[in-house]
Amino acid sequence: MKSPLRMFRGLKLGRQEAKEEKQQHRPPMNMDDLIQATQDMQDMRSCCDSILSASATTANNAHEFSEALEELGTCLLKKTALNDDEDSGRALMMMGKAQFALQKIFDVYRIHILRTMDKPSRSLLRELEVVEELKRLCDNKREIYKNMLAAHRVKGRSKHCKSETISSKELQEAQANYEEKAALFVFRLKTLKKNQFQSLLKQATSHHAAQLSFFRKGLKTLEMVESYVGAVAERHHIDYQFNDLEYVGLDYDDDGDDGGDNFCGYDGSDNGELSFDYRKNFQEKNVIYTSRNSIEDTCDGALLSPLIYLHAVWCKLPVHS
């Protein structure tokens, strides 16, 4: 009968032999997974770069528009003091203050862009850079393994080779190191890919909420001024229609068939709101504003007409007849 110590030694030796046999018969790594992971990594990098570029452009444009609104508001407030007509002066003052209110809304929107689009994308990009470093380590281990395998094969063909000999055990260790790094890279990339989709969905919904808040607050700001603007427009016979305002270059369907989905070609003319009919000829109706009784000849008419029309475009109000 074997002693417990001898039984333990035999069990230990059996485990070592099984481990060595497992290493010798290691299944080949799935190269398709490695190739796909490499392509996914490149696609993720491209996506992150595109989002960062788009968010930076949007934020810069919002900042420039904000500065333009401030300049316009300052101009209107300066003209208020030069006007003898109290009602017209009040209308100019209200529209001037509205520009400053819109400027603040634009500034908040720009901050939202940086928070919801730029910052998360940069965070994801840092995680992607870690995965890219894993890919470089994987490539290095692969090159080491390939060189050792080539040297081992040369040794097997030539018995008189004087180069450094590489044992089968060293070759197996090199292969194991390479496959370990490759498996880690594939695993981390797949995990990050799932996180990227979730992050992108969160970014898009957050940005949508920021846009919705931005336009709602802007519209509310302009509607508070509308009673003053409407009264002055009626008094000076200023017609600030904007139904014929064109959006050139947005006609995606030349044959007029929108496939039943009129999202981009929205036409709100049924309720008197801004018409998005892109199929009208811009050259025939390139009119910014009209004045029925030649009010443009006076100082008040020349200043108020375009400003009231601009306010109407901002506010998307019903057409006044």
UniProtKB/TrEMBL annotation:
UniProt feature, compositional bias: Basic and acidic residues: 14-24
Signal sequence coordinates: none
Annotated region (Disordered), positions in chain: 1-27
Gene source species: Musa balbisiana (Banana)
GO cellular component, one term: cytoplasm
Family matches, as CDD domains: BAR
Domain of life: Eukaryota
Name by which UniProt lists this protein: BAR domain-containing protein
InterPro entries: AH/BAR_dom_sf, At2g33490-like, BAR_dom
All copies of domain BAR, residue ranges: 12-229
Gene3D superfamilies, sorted: Arfaptin homology (AH) domain/BAR domain
